[in-house]
Design a protein that fits this description.
Helix content: 10-25%
Strand content: 25-35%
Shape: elongated
Distance between the termini: 30 Å
Mean pLDDT: 89
Number of strands: 6
Low-confidence stretches: none
Order of helices and strands: EEEHEEE
Radius of gyration: 15 Å
Largest sheet: 4 strands, antiparallel
Length: 85
Amino acid sequence: MMQIPCPFCGPRNESEFFYGGPVRPSRPDPAAVNDEDWTAWLTQVPNPLGPVQEHWWHARGCGTWLTIWRDTRTHDVVEAPDDAG
């Protein structure tokens, strides 16, 4: 099981959390992008290999929404991606 570090409760088992999805770029203005780009933003979820920034809700704990970096290869929670500038 993955351990997720909650800033209020400490490291907790992933079973206490609900996955909120990857952090995505801001929603584009539909009038400013073409139909293909708009559809891609709405329907395509990025699934990269390596560190990914994600939202998690500590539903069975303090109720806080967290943003963490998780390595998709190992499921380890990491501080920041390896290639962060």
